[in-house]
Amino acid sequence: MFLDPQTIPRVVHVVRQLAFNHLRQLKKPHRMVHWNSTLGSGFTLMGILNDSGSPELICATITILYILALTSNGLLLLAITMDARLHVPMYLLLGQLSLMDLLFTSVVTPKAFMDFLLSENTISFVGCALQMFLALTLGGAEDLLLAFMAYDRYVAICHPLNYMVLMRPRVCWLMVATSWTLASLSALVYTVYTMHYPFCKAREISHLLCEIPPLLKLACADTSRYELMVYVMGVTFLIAPLVAILASYTLILLTVLHMPSNEGRQKALVTCSSHLTVVGMFYGAATFMYVLPSSLHSPKQDNIISVFYTIVTPALNPLIYSLRNKEVMGALRRILGKYMLWTHS
Q: pTM (2 decimals)?
């Protein structure tokens, strides 16, 4: 069968149109699969347990630390809430710190523990976004709260006569509200912008929880500008409160050295050393994770540091404050004594 020369161009046009339509149909499913895979399926949190040589031992250690964090922070919150003698600005801020630590470790530890027991390390896209938002909120709020706590100690030691004016209840609650509000707004922006990237690479997050640096490594888009922004904002968000803390404690130290009373000097130094220990642990881990360039630390080191500031630090903070504080220990003894009398009566 021979075609008429006049019909050949028409046939060629039809063939081209069919081929073009076929290629469009081939591209459409690929796009849909890619988009659905971003929103529909989740990620795999590799965590620290899968990379360790003795996961059972590490899991048991993490479980003990989590129980310790729940117990110590819970008791500290109970003492501050129930004992009227602790209804002062210093302990109001300390109670907020315990609440943040309690929530922070609960965002991460139960999930890691259940993943290990069930041998299922998956986390949904929405779950990952929620975990990131909560972790950033609680970490950022603690960052700001520690600066406000340093200011509280500065006023108490350097300006004791004006303490109840400068740190009246309204000011304290404004500090608490500022910490939570700024941290949650910042976390919301970071979470939305981080999770809007398409994740077309392997969905294994080599980390204990969903955080910005390990997630950006899975993105199939150019994230260099955003990583630079995260770095600059991280430095600003961490360094500014840290400078305020160091300035406050420098002035405190100068004031303490000129105190005539040895007892007053010792009490001030004990209180401030507790605060500085907590500050050092928190800011040291946060600086390592968000301020140091990623080329200076490996994913395995990041994993260990994440365990430190999400599990170890929340367990140690209340012990650092309460064991060296006679007022807190006295409040706990009074509360537990009343409870024992009530149960026996």
A: 0.81
Two tokens at 76? 């500290």
H helices present in the chain, as ranges: 8-39, 55-82, 89-118, 125-158, 163-166, 169-195, 212-216, 224-257, 262-290, 299-307, 313-322, 326-344
Q: Which residues pair with 43 in a beta bridge?
A: 123
Among residues 105, 106, 102, 103, the alpha carbon closest in space to that of 76 is found at: 102
Longest dimension (CA), the chain: 116
pLDDT tens sequence for the chain (345 residues): 444 555 555 544 544 555 545 445 444 443 333 433 444 468 888 776 666 667 778 888 888 999 999 999 998 998 899 888 888 898 999 999 999 999 999 998 888 888 878 877 888 899 999 999 999 999 999 999 999 999 999 999 899 999 999 999 999 999 999 999 999 999 999 999 999 888 876 688 878 888 888 888 888 888 889 988 888 888 888 888 989 999 998 898 888 888 777 777 777 777 778 788 888 888 888 888 777 776 677 777 777 888 888 888 899 888 887 766 788 888 888 887 776 666 665
List the beta bridge partners of residue 205. Answer: 45
At which residue do the structure tokens 């500090």 appear? Answer: 175
Asked if residues 275 and 62 have their Cβ atoms less than 8 Å apart, the reply is no
Output the 3-class SS for 147-170. Answer: HHHHHHHHHHHHCHHHHHHHCCHH
- Strands 122-123 and 204-205 come out as unpaired
